[in-house]
Amino acid sequence: MWISGTTQYAIRAVLYVAEYGGAVPLHVDNISHALGVPRNYLSKTLHSLARAGVLRSERGPRGGFQLAELPERLTLARVAAPFDDLAQRHCLLRQQTCGARTACPAHVRWEAISASLTEFFGKTTIADLMRPDSAARVQAALASRARPGARRKRTTTAATRRK
Amino acid sequence: MWISGTTQYAIRAVLYVAEYGGAVPLHVDNISHALGVPRNYLSKTLHSLARAGVLRSERGPRGGFQLAELPERLTLARVAAPFDDLAQRHCLLRQQTCGARTACPAHVRWEAISASLTEFFGKTTIADLMRPDSAARVQAALASRARPGARRKRTTTAATRRK
DNA sequence: TGCTATTATCATGTGAATATGATAAACTCG
DNA sequence: CGAGTTTATCATATTCACATGATAATAGCA
User: Fewer Cβ neighbours under 10 Å: the N or C end of chain B?
Assistant: First the structure.
């Protein structure tokens, strides 16, 4: 039961970037050390998050990972989406025929639980999980980065999507 | 996310035995056909359920699987127990240190959902999932089997546990 | 006793999730 | 431009859930 290990890594990583990252990007080494998660595996995971528009990444010296959006807008569902198809698995008994038309025996009873799970992942944000004091710092960091006049660089986000 | 495929097989199998089994035991072939589940894999699963005291099994001609208890007493948690450790996974982020003392960032918010899941599996029984009409038949079947004077045979249940 | 039906068990295979190590690509700055 | 830093990607290994096929053990019965 529950979400995949990769998704758990992802949530913890995004949360870490939210709390400890600021104007300066965090390196994979830093994050993987902090979380006790394999480096290269995390690298792939972070890259997926960048493609999904959750993080932005940059290579080379002064590179690393930052949030792509305010933590208030990053729901757990969005963070989990690249790794776990949270929506697709609503039948407790995995009956293919379980739908509005022909329900599995557990359908009605399970529906309530299932809905509360969907709501949890859809409404809980990274900001909700942050220590209160770090939320303010993030606001400042993102604001300064978005200030016009800053030099544009090529970063990997949802916009810059390569095959 | 959710429970393992084996647990889903198990619930569906126990439910099938409850609804279509009676005084005469059901064969693996019958059940696996009905559920569209691999035969030998199901056999192992059913055997585990017998060891767990959910089913009783018997070999040879006239053998097969029957419920070991009234469906009202078979909670989903009991059926799932041999395959999924539902209780062990309470931390959303899989933090080892997540407990009463040091909670993970999601602890408080996740606790409510987690509790409702635990309650669902602990309180929902096989009887709850049965079609209403089949419940009565099971009552009769189990009662006749328990009637004193019936010859005792060696069956595999929680009591007859072999290493 | 021996034949047959049925579950129990063993040995093995397969695929996906997880992980590792090496190399390529991109960026910074002297 | 070239050296160094960092992410991106590729090739491969490991592990585990799920599955398959063959054989052993047990029970009923002629």
Answer: C
